[in-house]
Amino acid sequence: MRFRIFLRNFLLLILVSALFAGVAFAITYNDRQGNLAIAYDNNTRIVRTAIRLALNDATRTMEAGIPHFRYLVIEEGIPLIDVAVEYNTTIDVIRMANRLLPTVDSGSGVRLIIPQNVQVLSPPRTYRTPVYVANGTETLEQLAAQFDVPVEVLREDNPILDQRGIIAGDLVFVAQLI
Collapsing DSSP states into helix, strand and coil, what is residue 19? Predict the structure, then answer.
């Protein structure tokens, strides 16, 4: 009789232990699956970003000879003439594009629009800041109408976008005619 009670209690203990082990396994398995999903999402974002940056670099390299614009932070004290030489433009073009006074000769740690491979801005113009970030659904024609700027000027200032079209995240340089 005692043996039966002992056996029954022992089997009940094994059953309860097995039940707790099953619950613990299920929780651990679900946590592992969740962690794998998070790792997969993170890796996917990293790969997408790397691909987007590589395509952007490849596009910029192929189109390096085309006049285009950059949006750069020019550190305080960096002479604008050095920036102009580096990007094959003139100090006057940089000043005009950014509404800088003729007395400004160096960077001040703010973002400036740098027209690369541009010697003259004709017709004279400045640029809207911050630079417009495209959502990918618009065209240069639609943006020209939206910002009331001639589409020819928008095409001239954004030749890469004019050639390949606008992709979400592209910087669109929108002129303001003087």
Answer: helix
pTM over 0.85: no
165's torsion region: left (phi>0), alpha (psi -120 to 50) or beta? left
**Prior bond to 124 cis, omega within 30?**
no
* Helix boundaries (H) for 80-131: 80-86, 91-97
Cα(46)–Cα(32) distance, rounded to whole angstroms?
A: 21
For the chain, give every residue range classified as CATH 3.10.350.10: 126-178
In whole angstroms, give the CA distance from residue 18 to residue 22: 6
Distance CA 150, CA 79 (A): 33
Amino acid at 72: L
Residue 56, both tokens: 């952007």
pLDDT for position 58: 61
Inter-residue contact 74 to 112 (CB < 8 Å): yes
Mean pLDDT of the chain: 85
Superfamily of domain 126-178: LysM domain (3.10.350.10)
pLDDT at 105: 92
CA pair distance 178, 146, nearest whole angstrom: 18
Q: Which CATH architecture has domain 65-121?
A: Roll (3.10)
Q: Give the model confidence (pLDDT) of 92-129 as tens digits.
A: 999 999 999 999 999 999 999 999 988 988 889 988 88
